[in-house]
Design brief:
The complex is a heterodimer of chains A (458) and B (539). By secondary structure, chain A is of the alpha/beta class. Chain A has 18 helices and 14 strands. Chain A has three domains: 138 residues, Rossmann fold (3-Layer(aba) Sandwich), CATH 3.40.50; 119 residues, Nitrogenase molybdenum iron protein domain (Rossmann fold); 147 residues, Nitrogenase molybdenum iron protein domain (Rossmann fold, 3-Layer(aba) Sandwich). A five-stranded parallel β-sheet of chain A has the order 12-11-10-13-14, sandwiched between helices. The chains are: A alpha/beta (458), B alpha/beta (539).
Amino acid sequence: MLEATPKEIVERKALRINPAKTCQPIGAMYAALGIHGCLPNSHGSQGCCSFHKSHLTRHYREPIMAATSAFTEGSSVFGGGGNLKQALTTIFTVYNPDMVAVSTTCLSETIGDDLPTFIRQARESGAVPEGKYVIHANTPSYVGSHVTGWSNMTKAMVTYLSAKTETPNNKLNIIPGYVEPSDVRAVKQLVTQMGIDAIVFPDTSDVVDTPKTGDFQMYPKGGTPIPDLIDTGNSTATLALGNFTSEAAATALQNKCQVPSRVLDLPIGLRATDRFVQALIEFSDVTPPESLNDDRGRLVDVMTDMQQYLYRKRVAVYGDPDQVISATEFLVDCGMLPVYVITGSPVGKRFEERVKDILKDTVPDAVVAANADLFYLHQLIKNEPVDLLLGNEYGKYIGRDEDIPIVRFGFPILDRVGHSYFPTACYWGGIYLLSNICNTLLERLDRDAPDELFELVR
Amino acid sequence: MTPHDSDTLKLEKATYEVDPKDVTKEMVSPYPAKVARKRAKHIVMRDPSIEGQEIQANVRTVPGILNTRHCAFAGCKGVVVGPFGDVLHIVHGPVGCSYYTWMTRRNQYRSREDGKNYMSYCVTTDMQDSDIVFGGVKKLRQAVQEGYDIFKPNAITITATCPVGLIGDDIQTVAKEMTEELGISVVAFNCEGYKGVSQSAGHHIANNGFFKNWVGEGEATDEEIEGFTVNLLGEYNIGGDSYEIERVLEKCGINVIATFSGDGTYDAATKAHLAKLNLVMCHRSINYMAEMMETKFGVPWTKVSFIGVQAFAKSLRKVARFFNDEALTQRIEEVIAEEVAAAEAEIAPIRERLQGKSAILFVGGSRAHHYQDLFADLGIKTIAAGYEFAHRDDYEGRQVLPLKVDADSRNVEELRVEKDPERYKLTADPAWVEQLKEEGFLNRYEGMISEMGEDTLMIDDISHHELETLIKRLKPDIVGSGIKDKYVIEKFGVPCKQLHNYDYGGPFAGFQGAVNFAKDIDMRINNPTWKLVKAPWQN
């Protein structure tokens, strides 16, 4: 598979090999799908839209509806204003969405397309019907990663839509981060369980995990309703889950509508979920119901029941920064050793310091790197192996070459199902994630056991 | 049966419950007037009484319309260049385009003796904003050096994404310089995504690059290659298709010199001009290469299909006829008899379960056409079909060439190719080749229209709305399409077979491939799950 990867690690200045990130617009497209009745439009050549749709489709095994401004060479020379206007005309005439969320690409960014002006002109020319919305995010692929794209589009929801009126809504805003629809569902369930009224955005549940009914819905029932997005300006506070995906929107909302905000880790694992619950208590003045304490207790129960298979197991964690941070903390809390912690996103010191802080008492010499790739991770593993890989699909090649089991976690996962239905967020999600980890290690133990050690009970 | 007789594969008259004319109207009805007029030209109902029926194709996509087309980069790197497995493919651009062409087309590759295999690597310069501002040439040169130092590949390709062309990075010069510096072939492709109107432009760019740099450039360029030798052009080894094709060809005693580009190698590509005949599978993606090789080196080409039991047998007979060798012909007939019998034994019981079902196919630049034959083998009627990136000749046949050159096709280089004074060599008796050409046996492609049944619908570059209308009105038993609309189709309760990229199946080419396909289609259409879409209390 990856036989050509040498063990010796040499510095690379120019070559990215087997990246652990992809480009901004795909994140923006996915975020836009989290608004009810929204059709994303990729402003660039049609290949970008096609790539993003294909990849999201393979990950979710669901229709991903998105349009493109379909640039050809002429638009690249003369600008894409005409293309956007025509795209909006076509989209509103034929597909009738409530909103179009435009994200730019390398192409439209490099030629300097001025999206706010184009959108204004399109509206003035009648291409955007009354009562319909068009928002945009600048998402050049040569800046940040898909994580940044998500963050930018989520922020655009605030800058375009959020409004403060005289009437407080007594709700909490919750920005759940770049997660699976199952995770958003888990967050919403926990909030409901606490008796809290919240506006959760973007919300991809019931959009990319829709039931099969024999009919196709262009705009499924899920997604944050536009009136709710506007109303976020009247909320009591905002909880932004995930530093790198949700903080920008929360800050924008604070600046625009003076809604106080707090940034928390993604509630993946025990303690990150505890902190989320704590924050909910603090901002809403509610007491968690006994059922929530029970849920928490069940997760702790699994953690202790399974400790014999987890303790001091060496793990390599890679993927998106917010997921990786929370997962690292969870693994440590389970007694495991995350020895390599890698994100491909160029999020730098803030990520590295955070992870190192989590690991300082347990694995002080762990290799922690942002803006890294899977080629580097593979080389680290060749030098000193791990017992488990925790990360997205692409790690399977390393797993096969080095004979290491892998638990799929994060984005993308193209060869397994379940990720869009079973959460890894909140207490129940923790049980699911930990079951996956334990059962994978147990499978391996059984596979490798000689007859006399092939035990009925584990 | 004469080898080029296609009568056996002609599709039957469509029998719809609804009038296809009404369906056509409904397909374009929600569009703005101008768009409706434009799209109507892309929708044609087959009428065999009309000589030379025309269809609009290979024109710009309407911005905002939901279709499944792709870009020049996807066609160049993703389709044609990428499958060369012993070659390191460096994508010059921001990370995304490289990432999305990382293994997703399932181009399988077996390591050769030198063990060099970079198929599962994704390699890019990952351009950052400073590279866009100050230019990425320096970084690219460094990247090529690093790629060489780490991997020592047999050759390197550089493919450009959108911003590279805009900022004017001279990747051709980098390739030239690095070829000299490293002593291996480094080829650059200016396949920026905005070129042309679909991925088709990228195929052309890829062909040009390989023809200019590789074909005829091998060290052993003058060596004789004995026997019945062919190249496979336009075969990408998706899901292992090439393996099945080569198995049968070898069994017949036909040697494959080079494959462009599935399971292909750099060395073989440089020797491609030594083959005696080019077999063109995907006409759309590679007819350029076939034409240029004939002009420069004298290698004639014939259009074949490896998809479908009858179609593959017919293609093998074509090879037999070209070589005109009694022993070979006999061997091929023996192989056909043996293989067809084996395949038929497995397919026959499945056909009973599929007989009379209907399919609509929207895929590729000739894939829909190829798969019609395979569906026909299974007793399934194709009632509507079309391509996402075809040109008019893919529908109407090569006789419509040359087509009008417009602003969008002009930006792909047209190579001026001349006879190579030293290496041009006719591989067969000129009179024989001439005779075969006159018969339309060589250098001919009939396209889709001639084989479509009366009243069937042909739709070019189908849009989401049009597909939805077809599904609701024609109620096909299966749709052959790609990943982007697979789940749209399946939400309607209609199974979809991915034919552009098979995702989890294959091989579907050749005789055993047809058996695999039969099982796959049986599973998709007859799986009891589809009957459970509604709850008992909803029925």
